[in-house]
Design a protein that fits this description.
By secondary structure, the protein is of the alpha/beta class. Helix content is 45%, strand content 10%. The protein is built from 28 helices and 18 strands.
Amino acid sequence: HRRLVLTGEPGSGKSTFVNHLTHALARQRWACLPGWPERERDALPVPVVLREFARWLVEQEKPPNKASAHLLWDYIRADLSQWQLGSAAHVLETALDDGRALVLLDGLDEVPADDETQLTLVKDCILCFVERYPRNRYLVTCRVLSYLEPHWRLPAPTFPDLELARFDEEKIDGFIAAWYREVGAKWGLSPTEIDALADKLRQAVRRPDLWRLAPNPLLLTVMALVHSRRRELPEKRALLYEDAVDILLQKREQDKTVNAPQIRALLDAAGRDFNDLKAVLEQLAFDTHGSGTVRDEDDGAPIDTLTLLDRVAALHPKTSYDWARQLLMALGQRASLLLERKDGVYSFPHRTFQEYLAGVHLARLDSDSFARQAAQRAGEQPAYWREVVLLAVGYLVHSSIRDTGKPRLLVEELCPEQAPATDLNWRKAWLAGDVLWEMGANRVRDTAHGQRLLERVCGRLTELVEQGRLSPRERAEAGDVLAALGDPRFDPQRFYLPADDDLGFVRIPADPAFKIGTRKADAQRVAKIIGTAVSDDEINETSTPTPEFYIGRYPVTVAQFRAFVEATRFKIGYAATLRDPASRPMRWIDWHEARAYCDWLNDVLAHAPAFKGSEIARWVRECGWQVTLPSELEWEKAARGGLRDTVFSWGDAPDPNRANVAGSEINDTAPVGCFPANDFGLYDLLGNVWEWTRSLWGEDWGNPAFAYPYDPNDANRENLEAGDEVLRVVRGGSWGYYPDVARCAYRDWDRPARRDGGGGFRVVLCSAPIR
């Protein structure tokens, strides 16, 4: 792209990227810009901070009311003059005329939007400049949520937009290695010491609490800063923020090059200390968060200077505003916890710090006030106050206060005995689960009151998940909370199989007239519904009698597969297979690993004492029934839920609220059971994860050996001993696929040794011989 708007969330590195690009081009460090075109190595970077340009426009003796290219050029010249570089203006102008400039326009979202006229003027000036100098490259940066609003956007044909990606696992590890190379060089550490510290941080950020923060470069930097100062990371998120706040508040306190008084000296002069200052900032964060005046989802709310001075001056015994101004100047020079965004407006560096400080203030209220205010605010604005409440709970439970009483009272407020009647009350129940998770389930069980609350909340979350309450994404997130607390749907004493008499196996009755696949007469109707032609390999006209069998209510979960790995010390091929929450379906599993689980489960059902009284286990032990992967005939019979010729198990209309597919807005696997069961009482056969079958597709995917009609007596159709060169059928679609493949009749294939982030399995119990 020669012109581009680069969007990103707060802390994602948009300005850092602009600065890096500018520096690398200016210094001609091509190793820092892999893939930069050779023909454009004379490109001259021209960085412009749009916030400063907007301010310059307002400060003109006669503020302009009409956009033009010369306004932006005049600002660039004025900015150069400020740095005694006015004589270089002709160099930039020549580069612009010759089409050799890269114009970097940073921070469109920071242009004041209170007056849309000013924002429009800035945008129009950009477009005029592009029209005047059309041969150059242009990059504009803006925060994601701001750019979703029409009045922030630049014309799409002229400026397409792309989002700056979050760090993936490889980049997180790369950042940590680079961080400790720099820190180690500064401290004079040996390579062995550097590697050890980097490895320790890599392990620390993989804790579930911290791992969801690590993809954000700003928050990863905070973790690295805390770790390099403390040589470890706190176990809990609230304690990480506590350490980070202390570091940011005193970041340059001992720096002798800073031309400002020390914060500590000013506090000492007023008979105060850092705790008093933090208390003021906590109250300020709470009040500011309550104002709700936030432009961006993760942006700290603005705080005007007068309000800030009033609060700070109150620390002085004589309410001295001169002293307050000195302290505010020292904070600006020696700390990074309160940042000046523009003249007269301050904010915390990131909304998470505002939320943490507000949470600490909330936590300091008396018990009744804490529970009442937290529940009330969470009820008024659930998404906006959720993190504040959870950080308050984390501070209460994990700091030196060690108070579990206040959080229990809050859970009573959020999840009373009467069943929820509205979506808001269901969301409160979900928050109650998050509160208990923040406390820690074992800690909750320390009291009889806590045990009762845990049982009540887990029961409520189970209803939320399996009764289709709230949106699919909310159900999925609530399901992860339920898994962390101890999902009552599964029995940890029986290898996390479903906690019912049949161990989650559901009987599918025999059907002498079942027809697998799609009828030829229905193909045109199905194609119209799914928006694509029906493949010949799913067309079938022949009935195939299906005997009685039992199939798992859910796909095999992470907890179930982990129980197998721990019991057998089975060596899995890919460590990430066990990283998901316990109640999500297992994925990244190849066909052989799925088979190994089936063989193990067959053995424990036959011999483990935990299953001695189980009728299901008796059939395995005494009647020769076997646990295995389903054939595609069994899978489709189960998936249809008793319906004959519908496209989906619920009917003919695709519905992202009935299956975890693209369009459900989860964009990942979901805990099992988050979508309605079919008429057999089975969950997630469509969507969530592809499911391995024992059926063979054939030798060559372009010419399948085993299409329809389906012959269950063909000894080679489900040959379990066929090698890796023979493809196996997979069914059901997954979270990353659209409904056209997440349907009852669709067939696909995969190589037995291949793993996929959307591939899992479920088990069947069969009486027929398994080949």
